[in-house]
């Protein structure tokens, strides 16, 4: 695995991986507010993994891009050093450097990309640019070797909500996406309305456990019984109207002086609407594709209600793949796993690689419903 590589060269595109048992990949993730590195051997064996969540954003109730970039810069060396120490390896034992090149916050991405480029150049190793959302697709396979395509994937993070049919690794068809806010973004905004800290998802989830979702039933935007495949909103979701509905109800409750005791019920009503919408749209994709293997990825997939409701409604005939909460949120291990796949396909980055905040999802086709 040593020596220069033919930049941009592609090996045979079989979509399968072979003869890769020993490759040591260092994955680096700095696209948002986690600085994380991982050492992955042979695409399976996680030898070291450090995730450092930035707490500076709690003060502001959301991620401040400039502060995120500075915080990555301050800790990236230490995060990699600690990862290597866990694995009892030195940097020159790394065969491949994989890094999230996008999408994400440009300043934050640049820290990881610059670091990985520098290391790859200095040690004369290949560099692989990883798409953050493709990395989320790979996370469950780190813990469950059966989490392989074909599957219908629901990717729900702070910046994206994507419904994808993955026929093979690297071959994806987009079925639906959000028209406005991402699912995680909706959780974070509702958390703010309910006076909960950032990131809001886990707090809303916790609060909702003591709530009755039926007390303030919330709307399910873009979810109607009479939608048909081919309708533009059949698979798409929209959460900004739901957030507005929560905001309006919260303002009413505040005026009535009952907000304090109603908070758990509001959280539960919001979560119920999000989970119902996401599960219903995913089940439409299952029916449409005939594929009853469902993969959940991204930070919101750490949500227990979402996991349980998906499994319950899919039924015993189907299968839900989901990673443990640590690997569901942003982490370097999934980046290393995606880089391992891309490397063995020959998808090396050119030396002039730079971060791209709107990086296109590799291998993702947008066929429209007719061709989906
Ligand atoms: O994938 P991720 O870690 O970062 C991005 O790529 O954006 O996702 C972060 C998002 C945040 O919006 C956070 O509130 C949400 O995932 N999240 C959750 C839970 N844990 C994290 N949302 C709902 N329930 C959770 N348990
Ligand atoms: Zn993410």
Characterization of the model:
The chain has helices spanning 65-87, 106-123, 132-138, 183-193, 201-208, 240-256, 259-289, 304-314, 325-328, 332-344, 368-371; strands at residues 24-29, 34-41, 45-53, 96-102, 127-131, 151-156, 161-168, 171-177, 293-297, 319-322, 364-365. It is α/β, with parallel strands linked by helices and 372 residues long. The protein folds into 2 domains: 24-138 and 329-371, ATPase, nucleotide binding domain (Nucleotidyltransferase, domain 5, 2-Layer Sandwich); 148-322, Nucleotidyltransferase, domain 5 (2-Layer Sandwich), CATH 3.30.420.40. The protein has a 6-stranded mixed beta sheet, with helices on both faces. Helix 4 (183-193) packs antiparallel against helix 7, helix 6 (240-256) packs antiparallel against helix 7 (259-289) and helix 7 packs across helix 8 (304-314). The longest helix has 31 residues, at 259-289. The relative contact order is 0.19. Mean pLDDT is 93; it is low at 1-18. The structure holds 5'-O-[(R)-(carboxyoxy)(hydroxy)phosphoryl]adenosine and zinc ion. Residues 132, 136, 157, 298-299, 330 line the site of zinc ion.
User: Biggest sheet, in brief?
Assistant: 6 strands, mixed
List the helices and strands in order. Answer: EEEHEHEHEEEHHHHEHEHHEH
**What is the typical, i.e. mean, pLDDT?**
93
Q: Beta-sheet strand percentage?
A: 15-25%
């Amino acid at each position: 695995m040593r020596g220069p590589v033919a930049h941009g060269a592609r090996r045979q595109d079989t979509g399968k991986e072979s003869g890769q048992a020993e490759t040591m990949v260092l994955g680096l993730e700095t696209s948002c507010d986690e600085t994380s590195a991982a050492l992955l051997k042979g695409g399976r064996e996680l030898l070291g993994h450090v995730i450092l969540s930035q707490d500076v954003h709690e003060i502001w109730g959301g991620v401040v891009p400039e502060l995120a970039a500075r915080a990555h810069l301050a800790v990236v060396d230490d995060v990699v050093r600690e990862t290597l120490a866990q694995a009892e390896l030195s940097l020159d034992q790394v065969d491949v450097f994989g890094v999230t090149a996008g999408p994400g916050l440009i300043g934050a991405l640049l820290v990881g990309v610059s670091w990985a480029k520098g290391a790859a150049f200095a040690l004369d190793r290949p560099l692989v640019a990883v798409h953050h959302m493709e990395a989320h697709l790979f996370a469950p396979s780190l813990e469950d070797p059966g989490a392989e395509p074909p599957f219908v994937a629901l990717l729900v993070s702070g910046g994206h909500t994507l419904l994808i049919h993955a026929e093979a690794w690297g071959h994806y068809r987009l079925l639906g996406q959000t028209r406005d806010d991402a699912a995680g973004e909706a959780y974070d905004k509702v958390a703010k309305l309910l006076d909960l800290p950032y990131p809001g998802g886990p707090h809303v989830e916790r609060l909702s456990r003591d709530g009755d979702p039926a007390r303030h039933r919330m709307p399910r935007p873009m979810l109607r019984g009479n939608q048909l495949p081919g309708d533009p909103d059949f698979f798409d979701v929209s959460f900004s109207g739901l957030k507005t509905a929560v905001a309006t109800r919260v303002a009413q409750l505040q005026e009535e002086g009952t907000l304090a005791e109603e908070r758990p019920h509001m959280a539960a009503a919001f979560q119920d609407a999000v989970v119902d919408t996401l599960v219903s749209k995913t089940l439409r994709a299952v029916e449409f594709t005939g594929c009853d293997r469902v993969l959940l990825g991204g930070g919101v997939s750490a949500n227990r209600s979402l996991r349980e409701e998906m499994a319950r409604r899919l039924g015993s005939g189907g299968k839900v793949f989901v990673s443990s909460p640590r690997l569901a949120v942003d982490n370097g291990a999934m980046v290393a796993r995606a880089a391992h796949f891309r490397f063995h396909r020959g998808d090396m980055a050119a030396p002039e690689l730079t971060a791209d905040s709107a990086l296109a999802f590799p291998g993702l086709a947008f066929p429209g419903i007719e061709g989906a």
